[in-house]
Amino acid sequence: MIFGELCDTIFALCKNKNDTKLHSEELEAEIFSLSKTELIPLVSNAGIIPESIAHDSSEEKLFTKATEIILAKCFQELGLKAETIKTRSGCADVSAKSRFHNYSLVADAKAFRLSRTAKNQKDFKVEAMDSWRKEADYAVLACPYFQYPKKASQIYEQAITRNVLLFSWEYIRFLLENDIAENEKIDLSFVWNQSAFIAHSITADKIQNRFLEAQDKNIVLQLGLEYRNFLSALKKDKEEIICRSEKEIAYWQKKRNEIQSYTREKAVSELISSLKINEKISAIESFSVSLMEEDLEKNNDE
Fold first, then answer.
1. What is Dmax (Cα atoms) for the chain?
2. DSSP letters of 70-116?
């Protein structure tokens, strides 16, 4: 399944139906039916929210759900039993259990817009992941690799202190492309336990600028793979993101050209709509009317 097909499906579902639960179920059935070969193109793009999807829209909510489903499917391809967590508040997105080695984990899928560059430690929810693990052995954060802070950040210390894995979609793709999957002989728990390993192998003063590098080497070498191949895969990932960036830029350039062609009346109408002015006026009026009705009821009672 190519990424464009997934986006088309999301737009079609949101246009034709209003049942969010049904949307999610349809997406889950479709994504869980994919082969590993069909899944990998989605993994490569899951960490980037398309600019064509409006912020805080039903499409954005469904795209977020799709990333959770993709993550669960990835764990399945890695040999674990995995499912999305249906409860929506105060929990992770995915739960998974080893079929062979008696451990469990929870995971959270993260996706960002290329147009949103400013992020803080709260965006990564490392501390929340620690609390969301509950009885699970490990907590895993699946985030776009190149969105992790390049400079000093609290998330690296938090990850080590709380043993939360700062994983990425790029790691997952590399594992899938190299046919890594857990079995009776292969135990992937060392992957999910990387932050604890790093805590004992890197001095505190070097954690900030060496965390991801150390983790990269640990995971790849412990899997018996070539580190240079991992670096080549990251380079390919970076090139694909640059290509994706060009498409996202083209979307906004087209949108800018459309706006520049607006008549004055059309521009004013679009601005009023984008600010949701009419909806806000209606909400205030409704609240004001409810207060007046309360007074009328009290006066009638008296």
1. 84
2. HHHHHHHHTTEEEEE----SSS-SEEEEESSS--EEEEEE--B-TT-
Q: Give the pair of three-digit tokens for residue 263.
A: 């008549």
Count, in order, helices (H) and strands (E) of the chain: 14, 5
Indicate the angle between helix axes 58-77 and 3-16, nearest 10 degrees. 130
pTM for the full predicted model: 0.89
Pairing assessment for the beta strands 164-168 and 80-84 based on DSSP bridges: unpaired
pLDDT, average across residues 198-219: 81
Sheet holding 164-168, edge to edge: 80-84, 94-98, 104-109, 138-143, 164-168
Tell me: pLDDT of 208 over 70: no
Helix/strand/coil percentages in the chain, nearest 5: 60, 10, 30
